Amino acid sequence: LIAPAIARAADDPLPSWNDSRSRTAILDFVGRVTKEGGPDFVPLDDRIAVFDNDGTLWSEQPVYFQVFFALARVKQLYPEHPEWENLEPFKSAISGDLKSLAATGEKGVLKLVMASHAGMTTEEFAQIVVDWITTARHPRFNRLFTELVYQPMLEVLNLLRANGFKTYIVSGGGIEFMRPWTEKIYGIPPEQVIGSSIKTRFEMKDGKPVLQRLPEIDFIDDGLGKPVGIYKFIGRRPIFAAGNSDGDLQMLQWVTGGKGARFGMIVHHTDEKREWAYDKQSSVGKLDKALDAATGARWAVADMKWDWRKIYPFSS
Amino acid sequence: LIAPAIARAADDPLPSWNDSRSRTAILDFVGRVTKEGGPDFVPLDDRIAVFDNDGTLWSEQPVYFQVFFALARVKQLYPEHPEWENLEPFKSAISGDLKSLAATGEKGVLKLVMASHAGMTTEEFAQIVVDWITTARHPRFNRLFTELVYQPMLEVLNLLRANGFKTYIVSGGGIEFMRPWTEKIYGIPPEQVIGSSIKTRFEMKDGKPVLQRLPEIDFIDDGLGKPVGIYKFIGRRPIFAAGNSDGDLQMLQWVTGGKGARFGMIVHHTDEKREWAYDKQSSVGKLDKALDAATGARWAVADMKWDWRKIYPFSS
Ligand SMILES: [Ca+2]
Ligand SMILES: [Ca+2]
Q1: Do A47 and A70 sit in the same domain of this protein?
Q2: Of A243, B30, B213, B315, which one's alpha carbon is 20 to 30 angstroms from that of A173?
Q3: Contact by Cβ (8 Å): B33, B47
């Protein structure tokens, strides 16, 4: 029998984490901010933690999961839009040609989002999302997309909440694409989800008041937009932030740049066998400047391959 | 000895309310939605209540209190802006001439807001608000503005929260003008305050990350904007809404237009002796269409003069 390097309590809050520096740093931070009378104590009201979603709480390869949703939706709408047959980006979307789709650039993706995410009421859209997210499967794992969430990060969410933190998602993804399922999957209710949005308009439809989704950008919650979105929705500066790409750089800077104890964390995708390995050269979830900044800023870097015993809840 | 018409329990949750129809309606609604197994039961997560602020939770005469704040701020900044001496709306603002100021119209007020609310970091602005709100006094009552909150409405907020409701402010006023003090005064934390906003920009200032307030409108949370703002921030349709003017009409329609038990409420200013009396003809807090709609929609109308025993917490 070999004794484990560090004995783990039966109620270990982070069982899917190896005994890594990032694990120690998380536990140390939570211990310090919750220690009454200690120099780093933070009152309950200010215990706010923000998490990026794609690549931080769930996978994002080979494309953001919301792109799979948009593709499915466009296919569904195709019979009503015969003009899409030879029109990009719809042509590539319908044939499932991700490469040609990528070649249509940001403008192409925007057209796809507007065609698939607007033109219905908010309640209709929520139902469309639920129908997709409870049935669609990821091509590599043949699992529901919501099964591809990171077990170690679920444990961090639970640990923080057990210590009085309010946990938020702050994603570049669509706010209404996430809200219908985040409570069930992450324990994060809709009002604690911040994301990119399109505009809505109040209307009377068949005599009933509804909000109609318009094909017009309202807010892009990415990069410089993340601190802006956080302050708009929460009105306070959080003390904990986790992200995985350069789109999280300003959020990490702003959150960890406040007074008192602060925690910044980056999920580094290093495990091509169990998940994916990518950083500086990736078109999805590019992690370059934020990785360089991590050392100087003393952000914890969770190395997926070495720090995580388990990736997904279903993993052995 | 005369027995009271209806005996009140010692733990009466609405002691400042007379035995009115609106009081009965509120208690009845709370009883129905919290009765497990009952036909109108609403699960905890969906117990969301939204309250307009000006004229619903605190007074708004002779002008919105935020206008007093803007005037004080312009006076404070005047030494740095000698050009304001003969320039409207600043000239009227500095001399405190509310009539001339009103004559400058929406454009004038907008200029005043931008000059007084932008050009500093979010943290600096919060401090400016705190400095003012803890010292400035209302000209009629010579009380802090935060003393001019309605005791009966504080009781409604407490009653709802005691029954598992999450209470939100949804105001046409400035979101960052309210957030620094709503928790202390109403028990409503900053993240449960929705309001009008100006844009902010992430910047490094003296090497520190800050959000700079820009002189540019981001969102007007009034009228048609209220349901939009609610859904953007909360992602659900509340089941309880209270307002006092036509700016709350669409919010009331949308909230009470959902399925299941719903409650709409209008505060009607009818007491010129203890507070103010105004409705259809008022330039501040105009209540016309929403009052007409109340009957058909079966919204409770709280008549200040007859329904409220007490107006302010300091009233006898
Ligand atoms: Ca990400
Ligand atoms: Ca009002």
Answers
A1: no
A2: B213
A3: yes
pLDDT for position B3: 47
Residue-wise pLDDT for A295-305, tens only, equals 999 999 999 99
Q: Note down the domain range covering B182.
A: 21-61+148-307
Determine whether B10 is exposed, middle or buried from the number of CB atoms within 10 Å of its CB (0-12, 13-18, 19+): exposed
DSSP A8-52: PPTT-S-TTB-S-HHHHHHHHHHHHHH-TTSTT---GGG-EEEE-
Angle at A56 between CA A54 and CA A62, to 5 degrees: 45
Q: Closest ligand to A241 CA?
A: 1
Which tens digit of pLDDT belongs to each residue from A117-160? 999 999 999 999 999 999 999 999 999 999 999 999 999 999 99
Nearest one of A12, A8, A5, A291 to A155, comparing CA atoms: A12
Which residue shows structure tokens 């390995």? A277
Contacts of residue A205, Cβ cutoff 8 Å, sequence gap at least 6: A121, A212
Q: Distance between CA atoms of A316 and B8, rounded to whole angstroms? A: 61
Residue at which a domain ends, from B133, B161, B182: B133
Residue A143 falls inside a structural domain: no
Q: Is the dihedral of CA A197, A199, A202, A208 positive or negative?
A: negative
Contact A209 B236 (CB under 8 A): no
- Substitution target from B191, B203, B226 for chain A, most A beta carbons within 10 A: B191
Q: Are residues B159 and B278 in the same domain?
A: yes
Exposure string for A189-228, b = 16+ CB within 10 A, e = fewer: bbbbbbbbbbbbebeeeeeebbbbbeeeeebebbbbbbbb
The share of chain B scoring above pLDDT 70, in percent, equals: 98
Ligand 2 center–CA B286 separation, angstroms: 8
Let me know whether A44 and A85 are in one domain: no
Residue B304: which of B279, B286, B283, B280 has the closest Cα? B279
Q: How far apart are the first and last CA of chain B?
A: 22
Which residues on chain A are in Cβ contact (under 8 Å) with B250? 202, 209
Question: End of a domain among A106, A133, A160?
Answer: A133
Are A111 and A36 found together in one domain? no
Tell me the per-residue pLDDT of B143-154, one tens digit each, with 9 for 90 and over.
999 999 999 999
Question: From the DSSP assignment, how many helices (H) and strands (E) are in chain B?
Answer: 12, 7
Q: Tell me, yes or no, whether B280 and B217 share the same domain.
A: yes
Q: Distance between CA atoms of B46 and B240, rounded to whole angstroms?
A: 10
Interface predicted TM-score (ipTM): 0.94
In chain B, the number of structural domains is 2
- pLDDT confidence of residue B109: 87
Distance of CA B45 to the CA centre of its chain: 23
**Which residues are CB-neighbours of A281 under 8 A, at least 6 positions away?**
none
